[in-house]
Amino acid sequence: MSKKIKIVVLGGGTAGWMSAAALAGVATDKVCEVVLIESEEIGTVGVGEATIPAIREFNDRLGIPEPEMMRKTHATFKLGIEFVDWGERGTSYIHPFGTYGKTIAGTDFHQHWLRLARAHQVPPLEAFSFAVNACRAGKFDFPAENKTAIDAAYSYAYHFDAGLYARYLRDFSERKGVKRLEGKVVQVQTSPDSGHVHSLLLESGEKVSGDYFIDCSGFRSLLLGETLGVAFESWKHWLACDSAVAVASERGAFFPPCTRATAKGAGWQWRIPLQHRTGNGYVYSSDIISNDEATVSLLSGLDEPAITEPRTLRFEAGKRACAWDKNCIAIGLSGGFLEPLESTSIYLIQIAIINFLKLMPGKVADPRVIREYNRLIDLEYERVRDFLILHYHLNRRDDSVLWRYCQRMAVPDSLREKIELFGRRGYIEQYRHGLFAPPSWLGVYMGQGLMPENVEPLVGVVTEERVRDELSSLKTAIDRKVAQMQDHEAFIAGYCPAG
Ligand code: FAD
């Protein structure tokens, strides 16, 4: 009997092709045989254009050349997300992929900044973030290789056409030996003894069996949810938005290296600049406005004329009670969904497949491996969930029931403690793995106006005068470097113009 494990991936959206590409590219055909089934008739969800820097690790691990991938997916660079009107209306802040300043005498930069800001006029914290300054100026360059340089203190991700990215990964996977089957799965056969998925029956009559089944069937969750009956845990009471309407518009004249998320009465609107067009969508609560009202609001809030018909999608925030049950692992929308405010879904796909590779089972999985996998995935989901809730909870708007509800709602204990710790003395919890790093939390806390009552006592080891000098020379150095950078648009034209 062959020692190779046979893995069947159901679904050819971003999750399906990322899973197949990683299995074929990392585990290779020495360890597993991969078959992917997709149905063009059913299609994919067709949204998901913004990413976070972790995607670069995924692509690098597979040996994907960046300029080629960017050319083929019409990608642009992303240094962060601009949040407009999330604190008070009329305000804007950027959550950057990078740090604020540098530690002074071993204590976090923001603690020193807070100490001065409480008593004096100082530039806002974001003036000391390289990535924020580059975003606001519409500039881009790669981080410096010298890790101590001021222009090394940031990272970057991409905006891309997710359909083209899946297509790119499909070509990659097929070159690495993944077998693709086109067709609709009409029946899932399970073993009467173990309850494991045994095979998938296609409309054509073909039967596909395997050792493991990766369920990338989208919101329907055909294998883990429908067949194995793993329940969906709803987080709608914390993340109330349950719908989105998406539309593409013409390419914009302003081409910033960041996503924009503008808070609105019933949710928020995204703007994602790609090389050839702009992606837009309104994520909203259907308890507050109808699909038609959301569509009118989206279209009237566009910077550029629409070039496609608006498309409405329904979803619910939450996840399956476990991501891996028996011999079935749900990756992507079939395993859970957290709204795209921080562009985390593709990351959750990536981390799911990387954890699977780390815990790669033999033909039969050890139950401890399954438990560990589920623990890791739960942790990732809960951290992303808490970070998303933070944006809603700290809003200072009073123009709709949604925002008032979010201000008052009871948040998970894990988040409540984080907010309290920051509110007391600006402390931000650190963890070694997973999203999000302290600068991300800091960006949102401060961006939405949560000013700590106190600072860490250790800031007292340096004089205020020294801190003022450090702030001033840092700001001068950032401003000078950013002024020397190329415009984002010109950078792309030289590096990876879409063919
Ligand atoms: P799908 O794209 O739905 O693919 C499902 C696949 O399963 C398809 O190929 C389908 O044909 C196949 N299939 C289903 N049933 C059968 C069957 N019976 N037989 C055969 N094949 C079948 N993520 C981000 O990271 N960044 C973003 O900016 C972002 N924005 C988003 C905005 C919105 C409004 C939404 C809803 C999601 C967004 N996402 C974003 C999430 C992102 O779109 C998804 O995580 C990603 O596309 C993965 O989808 P998927 O592959 O799991 O499912």
Characterize this entry briefly.
This protein has helices at 14-31, 54-62, 66-73, 109-119, 130-137, 162-175, 222-227, 291-300, 345-358, 367-393, 401-408, 413-425, 438-447, 464-484, 488-495, and strands at 5-10, 32-38, 76-78, 80-84, 92-96, 139-140, 157-159, 179-182, 185-190, 197-202, 207-209, 212-215, 232-234, 243-250, 259-264, 267-273, 277-284, 311-314, 318-320, 324-325, 328-330, 336-337, 486-487.
Would you kindly provide a written description of the structure presented here, covering whatever features stand out?
By secondary structure, the chain is α+β, with helices and mostly antiparallel strands. The protein folds into 3 domains: 186 residues, 3-Layer(bba) Sandwich (FAD/NAD(P)-binding domain); 146 residues, no CATH class; 72 residues, D-Amino Acid Oxidase, Chain A, domain 2 (2-Layer Sandwich). Helix content is 37%, strand content 20%. The protein contains 15 helices and 23 strands. A 7-stranded mixed beta sheet has the order 5-4-15-16-17-14-18. β9 and β10 form a beta hairpin. α1 runs parallel beside α9. The mean pLDDT is 96. Bound molecules: flavin-adenine dinucleotide (FAD). The site of flavin-adenine dinucleotide has 39 residues, from α1, β2, β14 and α9.
